[in-house]
Amino acid sequence: MRYLPLTDNDRQAMLAAIGVTSIEDLFADVPAAARLEAPLDLPDHAGEMEVERAIAGLAARNLSPATAPSFLGAGAYRHHLPATVDYLIQRGEFLTSYTPYQPEVSQGTLQYLFEFQTQVALLTAMDVANASMYDGASACAEAVMMARRITGRNKVVLSGGLHPHYRETAATFARYSNAEFAAAPPDVEGVEDLGAMIDGETACVVVQNPAFFGHLGDLAPLAARCAESGAIMIVAVTEVVSLGAVRPPGEMGADIVVAEGQSLGNPLGFGGPYVGLLATRDKHVRQMPGRIVGETTDVDGRRGWVLTLSTREQHIRRDKATSNICTNSGLCALAFTVHLALLGSAGLKRLAAINHSVAVRAADVLGAVPGVEVLNDTFFNEFTLRLSKPAGAVADKLAQRGVLGGVPVSRFYPRESELANLLLVAVSETNSEADIAAFAGALEALL
Amino acid sequence: MAATSRTPGTITGNRGLQIEEPLIFEQGTAGRTGVDLAEPVPREDRLGGLAREGEIGLPGLSEPEVMRHFMRLSQKNFAIDSGFYPLGSCTMKHNPRLNERLARLPGLADLHPMQPEATVQGALELIDSLARWLKVLTGMEAVALSPAAGAQGELCGMMCIRAALEAKGDARRRVLVPESAHGTNPATAAACGYDIDAVANNARGRVDLAAVKAKLGDDVAGIMLTNPNTCGLFEDEILEIAEAVHEVGAYFYCDGANFNAIVGKVRPGDLGIDAMHLNLHKTFSTPHGGGGPGSGPVVLSGGLAPFAPLPFVVHGKEGFRLVEHRGRSEDEGLSAIGRLKGFHGQMGMFVRALAYMMSHGADGLRQVAEDAVLNANYLLAGLKDVLTVSYPGPCMHEVLFDDGFLEDTGVSTLDFAKALIDEGFHPTTIYFPLVVHGAMLMEPTETESKASLDQFIATVRGLAAGARSGDAAKFHDAPKLTPRRRLDETGAARHPVLRWRPAPDKAAE
Fold first, then answer.
1. Domain boundaries B98-355, corresponding CATH code
2. Number of independent structural domains in chain A
3. Low-confidence ranges of chain A (pLDDT < 70)
4. Are the Cβ atoms of A131 and B346 closer than 8 angstroms?
5. What is the rounded average pLDDT for all residues in chain B?
6. In terms of domains, do A351 and A430 share one?
7. According to a count of CB atoms within 10 Å of the terminal CB, is the N or C end of chain A lower?
8. Is B478 in a helix, a strand, or coil?
9. Are residues A102 and A237 in the same domain?
10. Which residues of chain A does B63 touch, with a Cβ-Cβ cutoff of 8 Å?
C-alpha cells in the first residue's frame, strides 16, 4: 500500500526487537469479545487512478456554478480566487503543519495568524480579533455565549434579518443553558424595531448587516439603545467583501463582530470548510473564545509570535474554559489572509465597487421582468425578489434551464407561506452581462 | 541572557536560506494592489448613505511581493511533509496529495451549498458513501456528519445524550470524566450544563472500574472515556465499564481521537459505546493545516440517532435529499438537537477522508492500525531502558514516558523537547496527559519508516545520555538553530499585543 513504508521484513524485524512473535500480541489488551474477526463489508484498497475515477464520477454528476450562470448567496458567495492563493495554501509547510503550540518551529503559522487578526480588526473597525472560528454561524453562537459571560444576563434578542442558520446555531449552542431567546420574525424589508425588545435583562442583540434579505441599516441608533441598557450589540456579516464598500460595524458601535470569511480566499465547496471571524473591543479580550496569537520576543530579544491568553482555553481551564473549541480554521484563515494581502485596501474597495455595480445592474434588469418585484431600497450585492409564483419551484426550473438563479427563502423558512414567493439573488464580479440576461430571460419564460 | 549573543552577525539579520520577514503591514505602498480588476461601471449606488469612508488601512502589495512574503513564512514552519512529528494524541500522519486534487475538482469545490438538490446528487451521494464507510468501520447505526471539528463532535454527542435522557423525562446532573481526558471533554460536558465528576486512573494507567462503579448513580448522565486512552493504553475493562454505565441508565460517550490504533481491528459498536466522534484530520488523514480546519463526525447508537443534528442526507423517492428542518417524524428530524453550524458540514474534508478510506480499503485500514501500533511499540522497545516508561507495555498507537529519568539532571521535559527541535524533530506531546509527572507522549503513526524510527530512537538515546552526563546548559539553551529561540510567553500574556498598529507618528498623519 503506497502510504505505508513498512515492509513485511521490517515488520518481522520490529516484532523481534519488541520481543513478541505476532502483531496480535500487541493487541493483547483488547478483550477477545471486542476483537473484530469477520471481514468488513467494504472494498479493499484501490490505486490512485481508481479512486480518482470514482470520485471524479461523483463530481461529474453535479451542476457546477463554474459552468452555469450563478446567482446563489444566502451566506456563501462565489468570487474569483487568485491562483496565488491556492498555490500558497498547498505549500506543505502550511498544509501539513500542526497547531503552533511549539512556537520556535511555527513562526510561519503564528505570523500569518497575527496578520489575519490585524486584517480582521481593520476590516471590521474593531480593536482585536481571534485566530478564527469554524464558520460564521458558529462564531455567532460563540459571540452570544461571550456576551452572556460579559453581562451576566441571559436574554438574547435575535434580529429577523439575521441568517436563519445563525439563529438556529445560536439556539442549539445555548440549548442546555439558561439563555432565553427572543427571535424577531423574518424582517424582509428592514423595518423591525429591535429597540423595543431590549430591556435591563438583555445580554445581547444580534443583527446582520447587510441583512439576510440584503438591505443595509445604520446600526448606530441600536448601538446607543444597547449601551443605555448595558446590552452587547453583536453584528454579523455574512459577505465580508461588503466591508470594502459599506460602513463597518465598528464605526456603528458594535461590541462584537462575527463574520463568515469564505468570500475571501475560500471556494464555495458545498458549504465548508469556511472561516469564522470574531472581533471585539480590547476590554472584552479575556472573554473571547478560541485561539489568539500575540507578539513577544525570544531570548535573543528578537520579535516573534506565540499563542497567548490560553488560560481561557479548554486545554488549560478544562470545564471552566470560555468555550470547548480547540481546532480553528487555520488554513482557511491563511487563504483569507493571502487573498486580502493581494487585494490591499485599493483592491478590496474596487472589488466591492464592482460587486455593487453589477448587483445594481442585475436588480434593474430583473426588476423589469413581468412578475418580478425587487423588495430592496438598499443592498450591497444581494437582494430579495418577490415572484408571482412560489420561488422554490421556479429555482428548480431555472436549474433545469442551466441557470442557478438565486436561493428560495423557503429553503430556510419552509413553513412561512408569506415568504414562499421570495428569492434571494446574489451577484458578484463573476457575473457577466450575459449571465444577467440569461437569468432574466429564463425568469421571464417561467413566470 | 545576552540579548545579541545568538544573532547571526549578518548585515540583514538573515542566515542563508533563513530569511527575516516583516509583517505585511510593514511593507507595500498605499494604493497598490496585487489583483487586476476592471474599472467598475459607474451606477448610482444603493448603499443608502452607508458607504464606507476613510482608509481601511490594509497594505498595498504586488503579487510577487505577496508570494515572497508567504513563501518566507512557510519556511519557518515544521511540517509532516518535511519531518517526523512524534506528537502523541495528534496523529500526524502523511497527507496524500491525491486527496487535495480531488477536493479541488470543479464539480465539488465550486458547488454552492444551497443549489437545488437535483443539481448536487453526486455530492449528496459522496456524503452518503462517507457515512456508510464510517458506520461500517465503527459498527454503529448512525452518523452525524455536520460537526466542524472534534470538540464540536463532542458537543453534538453529549447534546444527543442529554436530549435522549430528557425525552425520557430523566434529568441527570453528573458526567464522569477521567483525569487523563482531553481538556475538550470536561469543557464540552460543562457546555451541556453538566457537573463534571473526575474519575481517577488506576496504577495500570486505565480508568479504574471500581472507581467508576463507586461514582455511578441514577443522577449520572454518562461517562466520557477515550479509548485507546491518552496514556496509549486500551481500556481493557471497557466492556465491564459499559455494562455498569448502562445498568444505571447512563450513556457511554467515547472520545475517538485515538481511533487510528484500532481502525479495522475493533468496532466501537462492539464495545457498548453510544456515541463517539471521529477526527477526520487524525485517523483519516485530512491535513491539520496549522490548526484547522477539522471535521468531527459523530457515530451514534440507534437509541441516540433520532437526536442527530440538522441537516442530514436521506434517500428519497427521487434520489438523495437533505433534511434541513425538523419534520413530522423521527426519520425527518423531529427530535433533532438542531443545527451546529452553517450549511451541511466540512465537505472538503469529507472528500479527502473518503479518498483516503477508498485508497486503503478494508484491508489497508486494518494494516494502518497494526503498523501504527507496531511503530509505537518499536519506540517503546528502543527507549525503555533510557527513558522512564509510565506504564508497562504493550502500548497501542502511542507510548507514554514521564520525567523520572531526568531527576536531578536539571533538565525538564520542556528542555528535552526543545533539544529535539535542534535535532530536526518536532517535540513529542509534553505535559499531557496530566496523570503522570512531566509527560512525554509519543505517537509515530503508521506512515513513518523503520529508518525514520531508528534515527529518532538513536537521537533520543543520545539526548538522554547527554542529560544524565550533566550537560544541562545545552538543554536550557535549546533550541539554538530555529528562526526564533524560546519565546517569552509570560510577557505575551501579561501585556497582550494582539494586532499590528501603525506607529503613533504615522497614525497621527
1. 3.40.640.10
2. 2
3. none
4. no
5. 95
6. yes
7. C
8. coil
9. yes
10. 82, 84, 342
Residues A285, A301 share a domain: yes
| Size of chain B, expressed as the number of residues it contains | 509
- Closest by CA position to A405, among listed A441, A371, A361: A441
Mean pLDDT of B70-87: 97
Sequence-distant (≥ 6) Cβ neighbours of residue A52 within 8 angstroms: B98, B101, B102
d(CA A129, CA B155) in angstroms, rounded, equals 24
Q: Are A148 and A195 in contact (CB under 8 A)?
A: no
Could you tell me if A243 and A361 lie in one domain?
A: no
CB-CB neighbors (< 8 A) of A363 in chain B? 46
pLDDT, one tens digit per residue, over A237-278 is 999 999 999 999 999 999 999 999 999 999 999 999 999 999
Which 3 state secondary structure label does DSSP give A394? helix
- Please give the pLDDT value at position B3: 42
The pLDDT assigned to B283 comes to 96
Provide mean pLDDT across the span B283-305: 96
- Give per-residue burial for B171-196: e unless 16+ CB within 10 Å, then b: ebebbbbbebbbbbbbbbbbbbbbeb
pLDDT in tens, A25-34: 999 999 999 9
Which residue of B46, B148, B291 is in closest CB contact with A99? Answer: B291
* Domain spans of chain B, in order of start: 98-355, 364-487
Owning domain of residue A164: 83-339
The reply to whether B17 touches chain A by the CB within 8 Å rule is: no
Question: B residues 199-228 near A, CB within 8 Å?
Answer: none
Three-state SS across B85-136? CCCCCCCCCCCCHHHHHHHCCHHHHCCCCCCCHHHCHHHHHHHHHHHHHHHH
Q: Is residue A300 part of a domain?
A: yes
Which of A43, A244, A329 lies closest to B362 in CB terms? A43
CB–CB contact A134 B23 (8 Å): no
pLDDT digits over B431-451, tens only?
A: 999 999 999 999 999 999 999
A279 and A397 housed in the same domain: no
CA distance A193 to chain B (A): 18
pLDDT value at residue A226: 98
Confirm whether A30 is domain-assigned: no
pLDDT tens readout for residues B113-146: 999 999 999 999 999 999 999 999 999 999 999 9
> Using one digit for the tens of pLDDT, what is the confidence trace for B8-43?
789 999 999 999 999 999 999 989 999 999 999 999
| B189/A contact by beta carbon, under 8 A | yes
Contact call for A104 and B123, based on CB within 8 A = no
For B364-487, CATH number out of 3.30.420.10, 3.40.50.720, 3.90.1150.10, 3.40.50.300 equals 3.90.1150.10
